[in-house]
Amino acid sequence: MYVKKCRKGHEYYIEVTLINILKMKKVLLFLSIALLVSCSDCKEDGQAGRLEVRNVIFMIGDGMGPAQVYAGLTHNGGHLTLEEFPFVGLVKTYSANRYITDSAAGGTALATGNKTNNGMIGVTPDTVAVTSSLMEAHKAGMTTGIVVTSPVTHATPASFYAHQPSREMYEDIALDLEKSGIDVFIGGGRAHFEKRSDSVDVSTRMREAGYNIVYNEEELAAVQDGKVGALLADIDMPRASERGDYLPSAVRKAISLLDGGGKGFFLMVEGSQIDYRCHGNEAVPMAEEMIDFDRAVKAALDFAKEDGHTLVVVTADHETGGVTLTDGSYETGEIECHFSTGDHTGTFVPMFAFGPGAEQFTGIVDNTSFKDKFVELLGISVE
Ligand code: MG
Ligand code: ZN
Questions:
Q1: Which phi and psi angles does 346 have, rounded to 5°?
Q2: How far is the CA of 184 from the centre of ligand 2 (A)?
Q3: What share of the chain is helix, strand, coil (3-state, %, to 5)?
Q4: Sign of CA dihedral 202, 204, 207, 213
Q5: pLDDT value of position 226
Q6: For the CA of 318, the nearest ligand
Q7: Would you state the torsion angle of the CA atoms of residues 244, 278, 106, 259, taken in this order, to the nearest 10 degrees?
Q8: Is the model's pLDDT at 95 over the cut of 70?
Q9: What spacing in Å lies between the alpha carbon of 149 and ligand 1's midpoint?
Q10: Which ligand is nearest to the CA of 102?
Q11: Quick one: CA dihedral 33, 36, 40, 41, positive or negative?
């Protein structure tokens, strides 16, 4: 608009630039005001470290190596929500005493930042209890939750609240959950609360302590607030093809129950059964578990995009099955899959991050690196 044709086009160009600079100053002024407004908003809680990250959603695909992700992507027609994550890295998975980790040592490393021996939950190799990022968040007054497709007492979720020398001690792990103060837990494992060798009815005790303990998805949907334990199966939830929208809707429910407390929330979510299908060398069911987990990731990501103060990090504890794709089709979703073992393997697992602080989750990192980053980004003090 300001360009006039003349033999000294250069001078006119400068004039136009000056006009643009004047216009830009207004924009800059507006931006500065906007920044001031948002800063004074965030200063309400008086903690500079909490300006950005208010909530953390930490999502673990058990047994989810790179090929599991690619199998899910292929079976889903060539795309996954995970592709929307701007920051990606790789995670080393060995445990304190084994090159190949199990889910107890892997979960303990991801949760507490400590390597331990295979089979151990929330303790060092010499059985000293170590605190998870989730429990640090709880101690700082944040609300906390766990959503899984395994028993809530299974190794991966247990690593976030329990301290036991053996992952098999499900009944003791249930007592650790009772003590933990976690606000929302959703998954299987009812038997470990109610059909116990010591005849204690942990569910009744938790009701007396103020928890709403429910047994099916309808009852869970009806709960609007407060502390909630949803024990939806005796042991495991059904497999992906038989459990409908359970995992993504449980993630949405947990977020709605945890959000709005004023101090933020820490939610741990596990796609527990990717690992199970890989142990069983079941190719398509493995891909279905992967796609189901990705739908849960979408539920978290939708909230994070809207909220703007939520960090979502997705990773795995180890690879299971030694999966290799030798053929596939985005058009038909078919996968040709080979398993080299029925057990866990030693390889990198992927890491994806979205939201404030996500840029810290890149490169090749150790599975012990997550706790410190979460704690620092949340600005919570750890003694
Ligand atoms: Mg697990
Ligand atoms: Zn496994």
A1: -100, 105
A2: 25
A3: 45, 20, 40
A4: positive
A5: 96
A6: 2
A7: -10
A8: yes
A9: 9
A10: 2
A11: positive
pLDDT over threshold 90, residue 148: yes
Please give the Cα distance from 217 to 7 (Å, whole number): 76
d(CA 383, CA 369): 18
- Confidence band for 18, pLDDT divided at 50, 70 and 90: very low
Cα–Cα nearest to 45, from 111, 140, 113: 140
**The whole model's pTM is what?**
0.88
Distance CA 163, CA 158 (A): 8
CB 358, CB 311: distance < 8 Å: yes
Alpha-carbon span 329 to 192, nearest angstrom: 42
DSSP secondary structure string for all residues of 210-225: T-EEE-SHHHHHH--S
Containing H/E element for 197? none
Where residue 380 falls among pLDDT bands split at 50, 70, 90? very high
Specify the DSSP element, H or E, that contains 366: strand 363-366
Which residue bears the tokens 């977020």? 255
Paired residues of 229 in beta bridges: 185, 213
The rounded Å distance from CA 47 to ligand 1 centre is 34
What's the 68 CA to ligand 2 centre distance in angstroms?
A: 13
**pLDDT band at residue 365 under the 50/70/90 scheme:** very high
For 301-311, the pLDDT digits (tens) are 999 999 999 99
| Number of the ligand closest to the Cα of 155 | 1
| Structure confidence by residue, pLDDT tens digits, 254-265 | 999 999 888 999
pLDDT at 260: 85
| Residue 40 phi, psi (nearest 5) | -70, -25
Ligand 1 centroid distance, CA of 89 (Å): 21
Listed in sequence order, the residues at least 6 apart from 221 whose beta carbon sits closer than 8 Å to its beta carbon are: 253
- Residues designated as active site: 103
